[in-house]
Design brief:
With about 375 residues, the protein is an alpha/beta fold. It folds into 2 domains: about 5-10 and about 255-380, Aspartate Aminotransferase, domain 1, CATH 3.90.1150; about 15-255, 3-Layer(aba) Sandwich (Aspartate Aminotransferase, domain 2), CATH 3.40.640.10. The chain has helices spanning about 15-30, 40-60, 70-85, 100-110, 130-135, 160-170, 240-255, 260-280, 310-315, 325-330, 335-340, 345-350, 365-380, and strands at about 5, 65-70, 90-95, 115-120, 145, 175, 195-200, 210-215, 285, 300-305, 320, 350-355. Strands 2-8-7-6-5-3-4 form a 7-stranded mixed sheet, sandwiched between helices. Strand 3 (about 90-95), helix 4 (about 100-110) and strand 4 (about 115-120) form a beta-alpha-beta unit. The protein binds pyridoxal-5'-phosphate (PLP). It comes from Bergeyella cardium.
Length: about 375
Amino acid sequence: MNRVYLDNAATTPLSEEVVDAMVEVMKISYGNPSSTHSFGQEAKALIEGVRRNIADSLKVQPAEIVFTSCGTESNNLIIKSCVEHLGVERIITSPLEHKCVAESVRDMKARKGVEVVYIRPNHQGDLSLDDIEKALQSSDKKTLVTLMHANNEVGNIYDIKAIGELCKKYNAYFHSDTVQTIGHLDLDFSKMNIDFASCSAHKFHGPKGNGFAYIRKSTKLKGMISGGGQERDMRSGTENVVGIVGLGKAFDLCIQNLEIYKNKIQEIKDYTIHQLIDKIKGVKFNGRSSEAENSLFTLVNVLLPFKDPLIGFKLDMKGIAISQGSACSSGAAKPSTVMLMLLTDEEMENCTPLRVSFSHYTTKEEIDKLVEALVSIQQDFK
Ligand code: PLP
């Protein structure tokens, strides 16, 4: 059976060029980047090359890019170190954040007594700038605002430029989880008041277990792992040279092909929406995910007009890999926090959310297979 992969917001397949680049490093550049001999310096040069390219693209300084093991580590490092080392006593966030942000915030509340303010979204998943400003105004405590750039379940894109401006006005730190946008959107951090951001290579055809944190130098954030002082003392531990080269290759390919991939994937997304509207009567879309503006082109979150808790399993039996939400919660029986926030009780009772997420490898034939499978599953409910 030819399997269909439509879960690219969970992870993407490695691109062939990335595999080739990593294999070459595995075979040749095995030095420890901290060693002063030529083997070590060769490995160090590879890492620094990747750091420079990423920094150039995001319009930041190379020293502001810290390689980590993933988006989760980057978000943990930033949030916890802000409390531990920068005197943050208050965090403004939203219930739509990825678990690694939500749990880091909860941990800081439980262990460090940090005050947490949640900005409530409306039913489309929008966050009001007025609400954010009111929250910023309401206390003199040193505050960190942590709000994601794009939501991994419904794809809403938030105006981090405007949020950054508000943070500047009220002298708060601003962290944005950019895991779903780095590698997909052209980001220029020099034009935004953003202090911290996070990235995960496996969301754009790079290796799992590799990411980076953007940490604005002037914040003087400190690392949380003690050891040999690698990554300018921000993240001790011998660097994963192979993974960093893979991340760098994947990043370069995405940035070079940004417009091509965007147009191709947007066409697939539009096709998916049209086919679903055409073939599944009563289908709806969650958040802003069916809109051209303010929505990731890489995913659409569908609300099927029938309740089927086994939908993921049934599609898998038909060879179609897809999630109902974030990979962290997709194995769980209970609906995700994001869906609970956005759907009405009636929708929760009678409908099934499904996240269809694309890459530039996705084809219209694969979408046809998905739609055909959904039509056949819907028959069971008639
Ligand atoms: N933040 C968002 C928005 C994500 O979608 C994910 C991954 O699902 C993460 C953070 C975690 O990234 P990683 O898998 O690299 O730990």
